[in-house]
Amino acid sequence: MSADAEPFFRITGQRRLSGELRVNGGKNAALPCLAAALLSDEPSRLRRVPDIEDVHRFLEILSALGVESDVAADEVVVRPSGVCSGSPPDGLAAALRASFLVMGPLLARTGQASCGAPGGDVIGARPLDVHLAGFRALGADVESIGGRTVATAPRGLRGATIVLDYPSVLGTENLLLAAVLAQGQTRIVNAAMEPEIVCVADMLNRMGARIFGAGHNTITIDGVEQLSGADHELIPDRIETGTLLIAAAATRGDICLQGVRPDHLEALLSKLADIGATIRRSADQLDIAVPSDAQLMATNLQALPYPGFATDLQAPISALLTQVAGTSIVHERVFENRMQHLDELRKFGANIIAGGAAPVIIGPTPLSGAVVRGTDIRATAALIVAALSAEGQSRIFGVDHLSRGYTDLAEQLRDLGADIELAQSADTLTN
Ligand code: UD1
After folding, report:
1. How many angstroms separate the Cα of 368 from the Cα of each of 176, 195, 292, 392?
2. Identical fold at 6-24+236-425 and 27-233?
3. How many Å apart are CA 12 and CA 159, to the nearest integer?
4. What is the pLDDT of residues 93-149, one digit of tens each?
5. Which residues of 81-92 are buried (b: 16+ CB within 10 A; e: fewer)?
6. Which residue in 76, 151, 246, 321 has the most C-beta neighbors within 10 A?
7. Whole-prediction pTM value?
8. CB of 78 closer than 8 Å to CB of 43
9. Which CATH superfamily is domain 27-233 in?
């Protein structure tokens, strides 16, 4: 099957990564912080905003809601005074999961909100029950009308104790965004503890909110009547940082990443140390070094909610584990369908025994260049890691997935010495 010209990455592997770079601000911090800006009449300035498709689309959603924004380099000023109680256009809602994050702020500010089915990576069922149960607990009426979620709270939201069935990241953020303007106190119990929750809570507190305990499993919010604008810098992208560390280990490299938060990556750093990589860390810098003749050793891991091993790094580290000696078992416990990269890794020659959500990876297996397709953001990143360690040339399709979540991964890798270029061809992958 040949389709129209489609971009792909052409990678010639086995170049040792070395050098230093500064990582970008976090994708998963940018989206809730852009949503938080909706909660005030005043402008908010966000700094260190990654230049990724999901941010572009979120800004388009804000524009459709009557909110202007100015983008200059990695700063975005959001001017929310004209916000209306509209709904994100369905096509944009379906483009990313985080589109649903407009629900909390719109409900809090205008008393009504609606959104079509949010999209994003196809890695599991991804229900919305945590968000919806929380909105109901805060006093909203929530209905599904023709596939859209419609929530109304004509008399405003009221603080409540909300016990989450699962510590959903976007669910916790949506409820935080709704509760800051609710009357009285809200407690979110079994909250997600990801650093991105802390980042958006810090921004909201700068705007005048009263949020206590973000980053812990119970968050308390004392509702306030109104919020001002804020000037807020996003945390570094821990998944970009982790992907680069993994790529360095896979090429037996030696790199230094600046402007990072090592404390956000404890689970990954511990696994990299387990397999034999040498890590040096300071407050905002990480160095990883793996000698070219080093024999890395197998490890087992489980992808879990934070502070467990990040599910977003499960695919990239699986590619690395094909290059370590022994048997590694990788257990995915967050998303039920996040193993689509495994068949593609096998095309490089990887020895992986399917095990449902816990495949067994046997290594080290010499990888050879392959033509493969990434099916989501992190799967595409994993295939790039495999291609970097493979002998010969690979072609990686699924570039559009990668640009949703990584600002400039290919350029970063090239700066570190990888042989990677973006190419265009009508000769697309046969499925
Ligand atoms: C966020 C991240 C994503 C990351 C994920 C887990 C953003 C924009 N995306 O996604 O990169 O992989 O956290 O760290 O921040 N669930 C329910 N009911 C709900 C919501 C979720 O059962 O109402 C389940 C999901 O099906 C999944 C699990 O909870 O099995 C985790 O999902 P969740 O934490 O909500 O992930 P997202 O917030 O969508």
Report:
1. 47, 37, 18, 6
2. yes
3. 56
4. 999 999 999 999 999 999 999 999 998 767 667 789 999 999 999 999 999 998 899
5. eebeebbbbeeb
6. 321
7. 0.96
8. yes
9. Enolpyruvate transferase domain (3.65.10.10)
